[in-house]
Each structure stands twice: as C-alpha cells, then as structure tokens.
Amino acid sequence: MASKSRIAICLLRNDLRLHDNEALSWAFKNADFVVPLYCFDPRHYKGTWHFNLPKTGSHRLKFLLESVSDLRNSLRLKGSNLIVRVGKPEVIVPELVKTLSDVQNLVFHEEVTYEELKVEKALNHSGIDVKTFWGHTLYHKSDLSFSVNNLPDVYTQFRKSVEAKCPVRKIIDVDDVKPVPEGLEEGQIPTMEDLGVKSVPVDPRGALNFKGGETVALDRLNHYLWETDKVATYKETRNGMIGADYSTKFSIWLAHGCISPRKIYWEIKRYEQERTANQSTYWVIFELLWRDYFRYVALKYGNQIFYEGGVQNKRIPWKQDKAMFEAWKDGRTGVPYVDANMREMAATGFMSNRGRQNVASFLTKDLKLDWRMGAEWFESLLIDHDVTSNYGNWLYSAGIGNDPREDRKFNMVKQGLDYDPDGEYVRLWVPELEKIKDGSVHHVWTLPNSVLSRAEVSLGETYPNPIVIAPEWSRHTNKKSGRNQGPPQKQNKGMDFYFKGSQKH
Fold it and tell me: Which residues of this UniProt protein bind FAD (predicted)?
C-alpha cells in the first residue's frame, strides 16, 4: 500500500522572497507537496492601536500587492504557486488542513512583536506539527555572543560584540521546488478596494516609484553596487534629500522581506573584493546592524516598546493636542523643513533618513506630543514600515529608548540650512514658497514683509505662521541665506534601512 503524500504549509508574512528563505527551503526539502501561503489579514487594514489611524495606507499596500504578485510569478516559473487568501492566518490554516487532510507540517519565520506572536500562538494549536525559523536579521539569534536578555542597551556595545564574535551565515538556497497539491484553488490577489483602502495617485515629484517584489529588489541591489558604484560613496551622500540614489533605499524591500539582509551583506563583501572596500561599503553593513539591533531590542523588552514610557519607563507629560498633530501630519506647521518632509511622506510613502530624524524630533521635543502619535502615522504611511525599527527609532528620538545621550534635540532651521542649503527641497514640496529663492525659505517668518510680498507669500494665509518657534533657531536666522552654516551637528548614527532616528532611522 502506497504511503500518503507529505504536505507542508509554508506561511509567508514579511519574507516575500525565494532566496535565503529557510522556511520555504525546509518545506521543499521535507514534503512532497508544499503550500506557500500568504494571508491578507483584515486586522492589518483597520485602525492603529491608540489613535485609530489607517494601519496600512495606500503606498504600503500598493507595494505589498506588487510584492505578493511578484512572488507568485516567481513560484509559478518554478512549477509551484503562491496560495492567497483574505482572512486571519489562524483561521485559514486550519481550513486548509481540513481541506487537504494530509498536511503534516506548518512552517514559518518567527516574529517578535505582539500582534504577530498572538497569531503564532494560535497557530501552535492548529493540530499539526509547527516548525519555525529565525530569518529576518543579518546575525542569527543563535549566533549572538550573549543571551537576548543580556542584550546591551547601547547600540555601539552590541555592534562591537557581534562584529568581533559572531559569524554571518551563508545564504540558504531554495531549490528542488515542490508543486502545490492538485485541485487547490490559488485564490485571487485582492485589490486595494477589496481591503478597504483608497488608492492614492503617484506624485510625479517623488523620485522613488519603485515596485514591490524580489525581482525589483535584486535589480536595485545590482544597480546600487555593480551598475553605478553608488555604494562606494554612500557615506557621503546618505543624508541627501532629493533623488533615488543618494541612499540605498533597500529598507523598502527589507521591510517586506523581498530581499534578505544576508544577501545584501554577501553581495557587498563580493563588491569589496572585486572593486573597492571603504567606509561607505562598511556603512551599509553598519546600517543593517541597526536594523538587527531594534529587532533584538523588541525581543528583549516585548510590549514595552509600545508603552508611553518606552523601554526606560520614563514619565514624560506628553500632550495629545489634536490640532497640533493634524498640522504636523498634514505638513502645515509653518516650519518649512518639517512641512516639506511630511508632505513628501504623505505623497510618496517615503521620507529621507534626515527628514525622519527631524520630524520626529520636532513632534516630541518642540511640540511635546505623544511619540506614539508619530509612530502610528509612520506605520500608516511608510512603504518601508518595519514594526521594530519604527517603534525602536521613535523611542530613540523621544529619549525613552536606546540612546545614551539624553535630551537629544534637532534644530529645525540649522538642519534645513545644513542639508537643504538653497531651499531646493522645501520649494519642491512646499510650492507656496517657491518664489523664495534661497535658504531663507527655512525661516520664512523672519523675512521682511517686502520680501514676502514680492514672493507672493502672506503668512497665515498663503502659508501658516509657525505653530512653535524654538529659541535656538534664532542663532541661524540672521546669517547669510543659501549657504551651509558650517559642519552639521554631530548626530546619532542609525539605519538608512528604516528611519535613522538613530541617525535615522
């Protein structure tokens, strides 16, 4: 009598790729039929936890839909398919088990935060053997030189330890692809409207317009390294504001798992051997380490990363002023550098590292608003939203996270003059000020009425008066405009791969 066929379900979440996918690789090696499964969980398309903002906005959902479609195409080319369902994974998986009858294993990559862990806990009671893998970081959890409970609370200590003592594992091949069981309905990929999300048109001012998916992610890696050699000047250009290539932009594919951090690492190592190794090539890896760090911080502190007092459990009298928050999120604060960044994010789903640091500092240090309002707005809009990087960096910016320097605060006018000295970026995103042709656009409220009149600007009508003016800004409003006012202030380092609040993110 012939033995039953072995079937494995591989639940895919933030790992939408074929390369370096240990869960998928294990399933293909240990089953006769494999069901690669992606569930559009309806909980992801409702409101955020505290302030009921749209949890998944148009830009991120568009990218996700493209990523899912790309993975389906890649699997089809190899004789498999991606099974798509709309529903909660802990409901869909048991339904598939019941339908298929011969399912022996459920495999997936582990997550570390509350909502994902709740799903995993429910799946562990699905009645079949569950096998999990660690697959989202550059350095594997099992290879750390310390237990997660002893994770250093300062990034530099973490970085030095892993760089000195931990190996980076080789990329896992995904081959010997197995087919899906016969007769299993593949399921349609839903539209935005199906999920209750209104589509937002592409803004022509945005330089990204990148598509989701592993195919584009690998093309981007090849472009940034081998086609343009941009990686060799990354450290010098990463604080840019306009264009596609001033930074890697890898964060948007990393967040969805369209590319693995190990793939980036080993490709850079090959680039260093074949072309050049310098501070810039190292700095991309440095940024990947920030991404690792915040995932391990979330693993260590659990739900505390979402608490008002952060991992430091500080009592800070945060405000929840709705009018101030609306001005911030809509780019109507009257502070042009802040407004330009917020408008770019709303229009494109992306904001530069430099911008993220500044708008986060402005919200928490100048407006003194609850940092969670900002974190949830980023969660809604950013294409590259990664829960551990987002919340870890917001804690960092708010002074209740892993920043060894207390009370770090960015000077909005100085930052604008340093990184957008001629005001080009502000004029791009704040067209009301387009006739103010030099760096004085960063402190438009100080300009004489005669200048404003010639520029057709009426503060309070054409463009808002600032909702707050920090006293330290005055040191930079009476100098010659349109010229950098000296070297940028020393900044915290962090990840271009999410929000360098850490210098990002």
Answer: 234, 247-251, 384-386
Rounded to whole angstroms, the Cα distance separating 208 from 245 reads 9
What pLDDT does 175 receive?
Answer: 85
Annotated binding site for FAD: 234, 247-251, 384-386
Confidence of residue 479 (pLDDT cuts 50, 70, 90): low
Map residue 457 onto helix, strand or coil: coil
C-alpha triplet 487, 289, 267: angle, nearest 5°:
100
Tell me: the pLDDT tens digits for 299-329?
A: 999 999 999 999 999 999 999 999 999 999 9
With left for phi above 0 and alpha for psi between -120 and 50, is residue 331 left, alpha or beta? left
Binding residues, by number, are: 234, 247-251, 384-386
Residues in Cβ contact with 62 at an 8 Å cutoff, skipping those fewer than 6 apart: 192, 199, 212
136-165, pLDDT tens digit by residue?
A: 999 999 999 999 999 999 999 999 999 999
Half-sphere exposure of residue 133: CA atoms within 13 angstroms, side-chain side: 22
Q: How many CB atoms lie within 10 A of CB 358?
A: 24
Q: Shortest CA distance to 281 belongs to which of 268, 292, 270, 264?
A: 268
CA distance 314 to 309: 5
Tokens describing residue 182: 């016969």
Question: Which secondary-structure segment (H or E) carries 232?
Answer: none
What's the pLDDT band for 482 if we cut at 50, 70, 90? very low
Q: Is the dihedral of CA 379, 384, 387, 392 positive or negative?
A: negative
pLDDT digits (tens, 9 = 90+) for 26-40: 999 999 999 999 999
At 198 the three-state DSSP class reads coil
**Alpha carbon distance 315, 90 (integer Å):** 37
Q: Report the phi/psi class of residue 326: left, alpha or beta, with left for phi > 0 and alpha for psi in -120 to 50.
A: alpha
Residue 429's CB is within 10 A of a number of other CB atoms, namely: 26
Res 497: pLDDT: 44
Beta strand 83-86 pairing with 103-109: unpaired
Tell me what the mean pLDDT of segment 108-112 comes to: 98
Pairwise CA distance, residues 380 & 501, whole Å: 18
- Strand positions, DSSP E, 129-204: 129-133
Could you tell me the pTM of the whole model?
Answer: 0.94
Distance from C-alpha of 45 to C-alpha of 89, rounded to nearest angstrom = 14
